Amino acid sequence: MKNIFVLAEHRKEQLRDITWEAVAAGRKLGADLGADLTCLLLAEKVDDMAQSLAGECRKVLAIEDPSFYTLNSEALAKALVSVLKDMGPYMLVMGNSNSVMDLAPGLSVALDATLATDCFGFEVRDGRPMALRQMYSYKVNALVSFKEAERIVVTLRGGAFSFGPSGQGAGTIEKLSSPLGDEKPRKRFVNYVEAEKGDVDIAAADIIVSVGRGIGEEPDISVFESLAESMGGVLACSRPIVDKNLLPKYHQVGTSGVEVKPKVYLALGISGAFQHIGGIKGSPLIAAINKDPRAPIFRVAQYGIVGDLNELVPILENKIKALKKS
Predict the structure, then answer these.
(1) Are residues 121 and 160 in contact, defined by beta-carbon separation less than 8 angstroms?
(2) pLDDT tens, position by position, 67-121
(3) Between the CA of residue 30 and those of 22, 37, 56, 140, 206, what are the distances in Å?
(4) In CA terms, which of 112, 131, 177, 280 is 20 to 30 Å from 121?
(5) Is the pTM of this model over 0.70?
(6) Domain spanning 3-176: which superfamily?
(7) Around Cβ 117, how many Cβ atoms within 10 Å?
């Protein structure tokens, strides 16, 4: 593999977190494969974002065009094919966002490239990359190969890679002419529909206490809010809690809610359905309390207690408060 390319994602002229996660993945792949890392930036205005990327990539290829104000898959595909069609063997790394899910399949066909989506890890064997992804509704982890593919397109699950500044110094920035010309894409950006604003942003929390069906039919939510507060965290939940109207939708963790990657995730009365597990894959420390010793949550938790959480939660909170005082 000669080159690793990373597609930068942005919104309202700001780079998104998934861009830096893709840079982290590309940096690791580049080191393992002995390949150069180049970031591809397509935006209406590229200067500020290109400077930020150049601090973490040896090279940035930037194309400026009003059609790239958003990640318009039609315009992006045309531009990326123009840039990459004559390149040697390469891997193109992108985040598994909604915009990229619209872009990646058609782009891989246009580039005659192999495609692997929603990857959460990579390995290199005999000098060739392999991807880790999940199958059968998150029940099986699969290590997939690309056979003898010379061009590979992969998308990354959010939270799968942690980014840290490299301190490498500024890389080079090369501006390319837009291949779109006067032709306007058939797809047109209308406006952003913002998500419901809540009292907390669980995606940004370092500590999350999350509650599920096991807290009971008529629980006192304030008990769990108090525990979360004592830990310096926020309260979240699984889908059954939202369905019962005990907490609003923006507190829901999972693939159908919010995908999170806190430093500590405490699951209380959560069995661990695959939709929920898929939303906490990026958490480095998961602890769980559940009365069912066979609950799937224990398969991913580093620490677990089998017991009645209504008895254990007050004890845990008192211990935390005592430790803080001491």
Answers:
(1) yes
(2) 898 888 899 999 999 999 888 899 999 998 888 888 999 999 999 999 999 998 9
(3) 12, 6, 13, 27, 29
(4) 112
(5) yes
(6) HUPs (3.40.50.620)
(7) 18
Phi-psi region of 70 (alpha: psi -120 to 50; beta: other; left: phi over 0): beta
Other CB atoms within 10 Å distance of the CB of residue 69: 16
Indicate the CATH number of 202-325 among 3.10.20.340, 3.20.20.140, 3.40.50.1220, 3.30.930.10: 3.40.50.1220
DSSP of 106-130, one letter per residue? HHHHHTT-EEEEEEEEEEEETTEEE
In contact, 149 and 114? CB cutoff 8 Å: yes
Q: Are 175 and 138 in contact (CB under 8 A)?
A: no
CB environment 120-159: b (16+ within 10 A), e (fewer)? bbbeeeeeebbbbbbeeebeeeeeeebeebebbbbbbbbb
Q: Which residues contact 219 (CB under 8 A, 6 or more apart)?
A: 211, 246
Q: Token pair of 243, please? A: 């369905």
Q: Distance (Å, rounded) from C-alpha 239 to C-alpha 259?
A: 13
Residue 217, C-beta contacts closer than 8 angstroms, at least 6 positions apart: none
Q: Which residues pair with 86 in a beta bridge?
A: none
Structural contact between residues 313 and 224, judged by C-beta atoms closer than 8 angstroms: yes
